[in-house]
Amino acid sequence: MIESIAFSRVATYGAPGEQLNGLSKLNFVFGSNGTGKTTISRVIADEAKFPTCNVSWKAGAKLQPLVYNHDFVERNFNQSTELKGVFTLGEQQQDTLAKIATAKGELDALAAKIASLNHGLHGIDGNGGKKGELAALEIGLKDKCWAQKQKYDSKLQSGFEGFRNSAENFKRKVLHEQVSNTATLLTLAELEKKAESIFGPTPVTEASVPNVATTTLLAKEADPILKKRVIGKDDVDIAGMIKKLGNSDWVREGRNFYQANDGTCPFCQQGTSNAFARSLEEYFDETFVKDSTAIEDLVTDYATEAARVKQQIASIIESPSKFLAIDKLKTEKELFDAKVTLNNQRLAGKKKEASQVVELESLSNVFAAINALIDAANTKVAEHNSMVNNLATERATLTTQVWRFVLEELKADLAAFKTAKDGLDKATASLTTQIATATTDKTEKTTEIRELEKQTTSIHPTIEGINSLLSSFGFQGFKLAEAASGTSYKLVRSDGSDAKATLSEGEKTFVTFLYFYHLLKGSDTDSGMTTDRIVVFDDPVSSLDSDILFIVASLIKGLFDEMRSGTGNIKQIFVLTHNVYFHKEVTYNPKRTGVAMNEETFWIVRRSGPMSKLDKHQTNPIRTSYELLWAEVRKPERSNLAIQNTLRRILENYFKILGGMEFDQLCSLFEGKEKLICKSLCSWIHDGSHYAHDDLYVTIDDAMVDAYLKVFRAIFGKSGHGAHYRMMMGDAFVEEAA
């Protein structure tokens, strides 16, 4: 059975299009000529010809469509000199018929099994079942994957390049990476740090930080002169006194003043002997002078080398590498400066008092720290430059590391997804296999039925059936006869001559309809009579008179009854028409209480400009003018002025025209006050039918209308037609009024 049909970009249906949805066994479509009814029938007849339209079948099980429309008439009557024979099952071979019935039951059971399996696989609407669960599972994972993208996109977007604009593609990438990604797992901070350089603007190589030359300066800390006491000779006569007093540095310093004072002691101002002068010269001999020179050189060299190192460090700080821990280097430089200042002071003291033993503050720890900072920076520089030189490789590596991080974030979700998907895939595979097996069995059973049908089919029962109907409906001038081929029909006159070319439009339409009607109970081949099918009637009474209209409607309604009882092979019927009378006749159902029954749907197709529009109705939208009059009475928001003419027309139609009763006869049914009200009502009715009241001068209030509506109801009750009143007003209105 068809559940819905979507029409788009075909004939008078535009985009996004229109739909027939929520379809039932019986579906009635009313519309004027040219509104799009035939397009509906053509889409059902061969949906493959209309790729922009979609026909949705229940459980995906397609049935054979048999469509009566202009195309059918043209194909079977106008384009061919003969009508294809309609094969039906004979009634003589009961054993074969019993086998066909049994096989048909088995075929129906297989169809039901396939439908049930499809329900489990695809759900009722084609979007559920295991496939629906799998789709929902995929959507759930897609949302979780996309949430990761949203969370980290601001910093790692280049790693997601190519997958940032589609949640579905992002999810597929995650599943692909899950299979093959073996990259090193980095922290988010590490990824962001690398992304700044690798994913940022195209980087350039960086210069290495120059190493600080510290060997020369460090060597001066171990100069032996620092630990040597520089004093004069011990065997000079004044050596004993100097040693005793420990004033060698004082004497050496005073010696300079002594020489400048022409041999006179600078302290006591007394002259000295030549022997004393020789003793001073001998005490401060060549060794003493050499050591003193060494001290002076050390002081000068140390200061010079320290200044050079200091300047080198300062240059590094002034133009620092972005990979250098500059704050730490500044701290170490401050320590270096302090120690150099202290050592210069100690060296100056040694120079002044050469006999002192001096130990300098070691710079080795400071230099070790400085060189460690420089080495670390240069390691990063080397890594950076390697990255720059291999940027494509580095970007690919970082990209895989980004996806590895995402996989880790989704680890629990991916594990749960895999477990659920494996189960659903297994269930889906099982259902698919069962459907395939059942479909194969169904095909074999269909073949078996066709072979049985060939054993007991004939085209003669159709000839007899159509000719009987033609005769009973007064078509005596022609009949159906078997053609020479034995598998088709021809239309002949009573004298045997060809009647096809001389048939009237009405005769042609009626005989073609009868041919289609019998085709529904058989097949135009020698098999396929028991195939389940859906039927479409598109304007079957376009050129028929009222008598034939009634007959066609009766035949179609007979098919309704067969479908309801399940005795035939018709599973669904569509009736499309522009004829109001035919629509009223074919849709009449005494069991319908107002709204559409579960087995039926009502539609109106109309043109809105160049485009067609389909509207679904909860009730039969086509009514007679008499029904519309009663509808006006039932309206709670009725017009007080228009109600006069409405009541007159109802009473005239029902009592005067159909019943032959005059208004005076109606009034005679009342006594006393009610009779006066009835006469007043009739007078009011006549008045309302001939005058157009102006609300400025005539006011008919609600109380007045209610009073006369009560009398209107009493007229039907007094005249014995209360049942008609209840039928037209509905029980709910009658109870409310009571």
List keywords for this structure.
elongated; 738 residues; six-stranded mixed β-sheet
Describe the structure.
This protein has helices at 37-45, 70-78, 94-122, 129-156, 167-180, 188-198, 215-220, 239-245, 248-260, 274-283, 286-318, 326-352, 364-389, 391-409, 411-454, 460-472, 505-519, 546-565, 580-587, 625-634, 642-658, 663-667, 672-690, 702-718, 722-729, 731-737, and strands at residues 2-7, 18-21, 26-30, 54-57, 64-68, 83-84, 88-89, 457-458, 479-482, 488-492, 533-538, 570-577, 600-608, 611-617. The protein has 738 residues and is α/β, with parallel strands linked by helices. The strands form four sheets. The chain has a six-stranded mixed sheet, with helices on both faces. It has a three-stranded antiparallel sheet with strand order 2-1-4, with helices on one face. A three-stranded antiparallel sheet has the order 6-10-9. Strand 13 and strand 14 (611-617) form a beta hairpin. The model is unreliable at 85-92 and 688-698 (pLDDT under 50).
